[in-house]
Amino acid sequence: MSDNANVIDQSAPSIARVYDYILGGKDNYEVDRAIGDHFKNDLPGSVVIATSNRQALVRAIRSLAESGLTQFLDLGSGLPTADNVHQIAQSVNPGSRVVYVDNDPIVLAHGRALLSTDEHTTVIQADLRDSEAIRNHPEVTRLIDFDKPVAVVFSAILHHLNDDEDPASLVRYWYDQIPAGSSVFISHFASGDNTETAEAEGKLQATFGRGRWRTPAEIEALFGELELRETGLKPAAIWNLEAGGESEIGSADRELTVWEKLIVAGIGDKR
């Protein structure tokens, strides 16, 4: 990898840093905050997409760890925040191994600082679409034994791939790499066929040239041959609430806002 790959470009917004800002983090720049403020101020209520997704991720990792999984590959992980995957997994199984993957050099820098004393967790800089490079990366092969069950995490990342980038093929690749007993978590922007969906999708496309809200049927199809758990594909705000953890909504019984319906989550198991 060239040195240029590790240069942080402060003139262009980053998906990871925009998420960081929306979630209350400090690892972002003015250009990222401008995009985040658009969602905060011009699309009021939309920030819950990010917060409810994060809470669903926490519940997913806890559930996967409690089911006995001790290896986690977090693809498109974003910047470290509270309740990271390794923290949740290791709180259940202290020896859990976690590899974070992101293409943003700031994620690599902050991740290495955070994980400098954790021999069971690492972060690598790689493109989500370059599955072979990730699979064969020495840090991945050091920590992940693909002969044993693995949890593969696609948290709020596949919707940043356009249709011509074939996100389903990425899931299929990892399905082929992991043995029976493994699981895949996916959360994804869900099209509501409404003004809010169109406005949010338009902003992401205009900013990053990517960002695809898919229908529930399209998202479910991403799981391919994986067996979707009985918790099903549901809005992240209420998905798997019985697994515990925080939820902004307080109760799964009330009517969700339109924004809360625009991101869904699910776990598929390889039998």
UniProtKB/TrEMBL annotation:
Highest taxon in the source lineage: Bacteria
UniProt GO molecular function: methyltransferase activity
Keyword Transit peptide set for record: no
InterPro entries in UniProt: SAM-dependent_MTases_sf (IPR029063), SAM_dep_MeTrfase_SAV2177_type (IPR006764)
Keyword tags: Methyltransferase, Transferase
GO biological process terms, semicolon-separated: methylation
Coiled-coil ranges (or none): none
EC number per UniProt: 2.1.1.-
Protein name: SAM-dependent methyltransferase
Species assigned in the record: Nocardia thailandica
